[in-house]
């Protein structure tokens, strides 16, 4: 492949002519952790805080859980910390203090010819290749030689700093979006607690709510006929019970599974306005999680889905209401089983709820749906920003794009 002027071919790919390829231990000090004696551990904040592995890691910086009075190997503030043992191998944090590091962790400290954040981004970019070098399949490990001999492209420190600053700015934007999403979720949760219980009324609404059990406002039927192996890329839309836990919250906004004609003929149809409950789950607290189906086209429900068809109610409102804590507690009491918890249509039919008139149901559903739309837009923006960062890393960390 032809190399354009100003660049050169190296063992790690094409890089600018004024960049070098360096082993990690040439541009940084590598400190492999060593666990102190177990008898020195304490939670009384005596000695140095201890990092043994992913338990103390967060998305960015470690947290202090336990201490040791007999520190062995230590890291300093702003060191890069990387897990080197077990299933969390490759996970990274930036140290926010001095810690004792156990054998599950390595600290990487830049020298005068390198920038720690630049090294962090290079390792983040190379993490898949790094993990391919790990020893052990069930419990992968990164040994000292593997880390020290890792080769990365290195510009001058000034350019390293500029690259790290540009990528840090994108990280700050992602973090800001994370905080905003959490704030919006908390606001929505508070609004649900107020609006779905009638503690707070929207303007223009008053009067008593009516207590009902679900059997009084609709009918139940069991899903059938859809197995995991029946799912195909295109066909008739279907909802499987596991998706109610993994993909759908309160209402179904996207279809993830499809089935062929022959399976659809023997499966249970669902229609606009139906509420779909998960009939089994891992815990009593989660049992009976539900979502409203609001698409106009018919779909099909897999086994272990319980379908509730309400009459003269707002289904979107019911999707929110039937997942709220006061209803979830009722479902938890009805759950049966240990390893796998089940709930029946008969039990669900006895759930007691308080209902406002239909116009108020619609108004509440609209408020909560608007909040969901705002959160979804922020999540989409975050996903796009993460994708942007990945693209920037590919270009900046290889020198394909140079910062002025």
Note down, in words, how this protein is organized:
The protein is α+β, with helices and mostly antiparallel strands and 404 residues long. Helix content is 33%, strand content 24%. The protein is built from eleven helices and 26 strands. It has helices at residues 24-27, 116-125, 127-132, 144-148, 157-195, 241-246, 261-264, 315-321, 325-334, 345-348, 358-396; strands at 7-10, 13-16, 20-23, 28-32, 41-42, 48-51, 66-68, 74-75, 80-83, 92-94, 99-101, 105-110, 151-154, 210-213, 218-222, 236-239, 250-252, 257-259, 268-270, 275-278, 280-281, 290-293, 299-301, 305-310, 341-342, 352-355. The strands form eight sheets. It has a five-stranded mixed sheet with strand order 5-7-6-11-8, with no helix packed on it. Strands 15-24-20-22-17 form a five-stranded mixed sheet. Strands 4-12-9-10 form a four-stranded antiparallel sheet. Strand 1 (7-10) and strand 2 (13-16) form a beta hairpin. Helix 5 (157-195) packs antiparallel against helix 11 and helix 8 (315-321) crosses helix 11. The longest helix has 39 residues, at 157-195. The protein is elongated, with a radius of gyration of 27 Å. The relative contact order is 0.11. The model has no long low-confidence stretch (mean pLDDT 92).
Task: Annotate the secondary structure layout.
Blueprint: E1 7-10, E2 13-16, E3 20-23, H1 24-27, E4 28-32, E5 41-42, E6 48-51, E7 66-68, E8 74-75, E9 80-83, E10 92-94, E11 99-101, E12 105-110, H2 116-125, H3 127-132, H4 144-148, E13 151-154, H5 157-195, E14 210-213, E15 218-222, E16 236-239, H6 241-246, E17 250-252, E18 257-259, H7 261-264, E19 268-270, E20 275-278, E21 280-281, E22 290-293, E23 299-301, E24 305-310, H8 315-321, H9 325-334, E25 341-342, H10 345-348, E26 352-355, H11 358-396
Parallel strand pairs: 6-11, 16-23, 17-22
Antiparallel strand pairs: 1-2, 3-13, 4-12, 5-7, 6-7, 8-11, 9-10, 9-12, 14-26, 15-24, 16-18, 19-23, 20-22, 20-24, 21-25
Helix pairs in contact: 5-11, 8-11
């Amino acid at each position: 492949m032809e190399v354009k002027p100003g660049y050169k071919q190296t063992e790690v790919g094409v890089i600018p002519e004024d960049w070098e390829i360096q082993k990690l231990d040439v541009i940084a000090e590598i400190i492999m952790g060593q666990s102190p004696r177990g008898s020195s551990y304490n939670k009384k904040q005596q000695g140095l805080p201890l990092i043994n592995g992913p338990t103390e890691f967060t998305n960015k910086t470690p947290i202090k859980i336990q201490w040791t009075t007999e520190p062995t190997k230590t890291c300093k503030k702003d060191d890069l910390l990387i897990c080197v043992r077990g299933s969390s191998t490759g996970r990274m944090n930036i140290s926010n203090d001095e810690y004792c590091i156990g054998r599950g962790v390595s600290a990487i400290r830049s020298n005068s010819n390198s920038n720690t954040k630049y090294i962090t981004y290079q390792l983040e970019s190379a993490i898949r290749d790094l993990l391919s070098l790990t020893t052990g399949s069930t419990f992968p490990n990164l040994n000292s030689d593997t880390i020290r001999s890792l080769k990365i492209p290195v510009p001058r420190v000034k350019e390293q700093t500029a690259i790290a600053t540009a990528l840090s700015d994108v990280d700050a934007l992602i973090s800001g979006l994370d905080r905003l999403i959490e704030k919006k979720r908390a606001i929505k949760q508070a609004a649900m607690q107020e609006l779905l219980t009638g503690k707070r009324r929207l303007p223009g609404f008053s009067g008593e709510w009516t207590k009902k059990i679900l059997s009084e406002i609709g009918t139940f039927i069991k899903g059938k006929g859809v197995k995991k192996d029946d799912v195909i890329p295109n066909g008739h839309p279907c909802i499987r019970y596991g998706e109610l836990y993994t993909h759908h919250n309160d209402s179904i906004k996207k279809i993830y599974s499809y089935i062929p004609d022959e399976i659809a003929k023997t499966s249970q149809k669902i229609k606009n306005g139906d509420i779909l409950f998960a009939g089994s789950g891992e815990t009593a607290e989660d049992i009976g999680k539900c979502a409203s189906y609001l698409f106009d086209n018919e779909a099909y429900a897999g086994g272990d889905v319980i379908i509730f068809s309400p009459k003269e109610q707002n289904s979107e409102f019911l999707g929110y209401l039937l997942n709220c804590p006061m209803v979830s507690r009722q479902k938890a009491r009805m759950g049966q089983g240990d390893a796998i918890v089940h709930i029946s249509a008969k039990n669900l039919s006895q759930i007691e709820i308080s209902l406002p008139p239909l116009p108020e149901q619609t108004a509440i559903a609209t408020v909560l749906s608007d909040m969901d739309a705002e959160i979804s837009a922020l999540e989409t923006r975050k996903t796009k920003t993460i994708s942007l960062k990945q693209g920037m890393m590919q270009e900046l960390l290889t020198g394909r794009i140079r910062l002025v």
